[in-house]
Design goal:
364 residues, alpha/beta, D-Maltodextrin-Binding Protein, domain 2, 2 domains, three-stranded mixed sheet, 14 helices, elongated
Length: 364
């Protein structure tokens, strides 16, 4: 009897020992399942400027792959509409190429923080094909347009591409006898504001007759919605010229003009010429919003801007505030690596530190 009892006890002990790993695995699965249920899935919605939209699309895709529990959607509806939606509280963040005014900020009871996230150039893209299927005229470094010439094109005073004032800056270029068709933005646009601020700074006539703004009464031309709409019309219309963010011209292989700067030099928009312009922009510590409407650098491209992400300072849903703050921190470090590839200018280390400091106030 003692022997049988001993054997039986040993067998029961062995069964318990063998079952321990199985029990441990089952407990691990249950614990993992419980942890997954605890993971906060956060959804954020933003809207605004079309200027940074291609870069934001890349950022949001890359970030979601690394953080599948955070879904961020962005709609490029124009700076004006984005700011208005932020004021109305229908989005979690907005984007604007002109930041936000003090008057607009006072309407946001939850507070607002303006964060420059990227920068780039606004270019004058053109189509000098005399017919839809004919080869376009495109000098290697872009058609040269003097300051007064591109102002007068937008004023409707220069109406043909073979005008003597265009020809004198482009010797050897066979300019077509083709009417100029100006294409502008129909939506409230930060891109329009930046361009018209520049035109107002260099032309008293433009300032008095048209002035600057997100939407202005254009003396001539036809309108398209967003950078996409202007780009499409320039592609389709022989003789067209329109203003778009550089990446839209680059992606669609549209030639862009070399513009005369304050020193009388004709500058093609490149990462180097745009970066030199940005070095002249000093961001104030209180709201990080600043512009340079007519840069003084001898090699500066003349139409450059930051683009701002606008967030609330307070988020009733703390998870949303935290998720947005983490995304911004990622975009300021990892996201900047995608900038040059897409035609944007990475933020300097100094600006990154300024933005990080301001972003820390989100949902603090």
């Amino acid at each position: 009897m003692e022997l049988k009892f001993c054997i039986s006890a040993q067998l029961q002990f062995k069964r318990r020992v063998c079952l321990l790993p199985v029990i441990a695995i089952l407990l691990s699965i249950v614990s993992c399942t419980a942890d997954n249920k605890k993971i906060n899935r956060v959804s954020l919605v933003g809207a605004g400027a079309s200027f940074p939209a291609p870069l934001y699309e890349r950022w949001l895709s890359d970030y979601n792959q690394q953080n599948p529990n955070v879904e961020i959607n962005y709609q490029a509806i124009g700076s004006s509409a984005g700011v208005q939606q932020l004021i109305e509280g229908t989005v979690d963040f907005a984007a604007s190429d002109v930041g936000i005014t003090n008057e607009q900020a006072t309407k946001i009871k939850r507070g607002v923080i303006a964060l420059p996230m990227t920068a780039g150039s606004i270019v004058l893209a053109y189509n000098l094909a005399s017919a839809p299927q004919s080869p376009p005229v495109n000098p290697p470094n872009g058609l040269k347009l003097s300051r007064q010439v591109y102002v007068d094109i937008f004023l409707g005073k220069i109406t043909n591409w073979n005008h003597p004032r265009i020809a004198v800056a482009n010797p050897g270029v066979n300019l077509p006898n083709l009417p100029i068709q100006v294409v502008y933005r129909t939506d409230g646009s930060g891109t329009t504001s930046v361009l018209t601020q520049h035109l107002s700074a260099i032309s008293p006539e433009w300032k008095s007759k048209v002035a600057a703004g997100k939407a202005v009464a254009w003396p001539v031309g036809i309108g398209g919605k967003g950078n996409e709409g202007v780009t499409a019309l320039v592609q389709q219309i022989p003789g067209a010229i329109g203003y778009v963010e550089y990446i839209y011209a680059k992606q669609n292989k549209l030639p862009v003009a070399a513009l005369e700067n304050k020193f009388g030099n004709y500058i093609t928009p490149t990462p180097e010429s745009v970066a030199q312009t940005l070095e002249l922009v000093k961001l104030p510590t209180d709201n990080l919003i600043a512009f340079i409407n007519d840069p003084t650098g001898s090699q500066s491209y003349p139409i450059v801007t930051y683009s701002w992400l606008l967030t609330y300072q307070q988020y009733p849903n703390l998870a949303k505030g935290e998720a947005l703050r983490k995304f911004i921190d990622w975009a300021l470090i990892e996201g900047q690596k995608s900038s040059l590839e897409l035609g944007y200018i990475p933020l300097s280390k100094k600006v990154v530190l300024q933005v990080q400091s301001a972003a820390n106030r989100i949902a603090e």
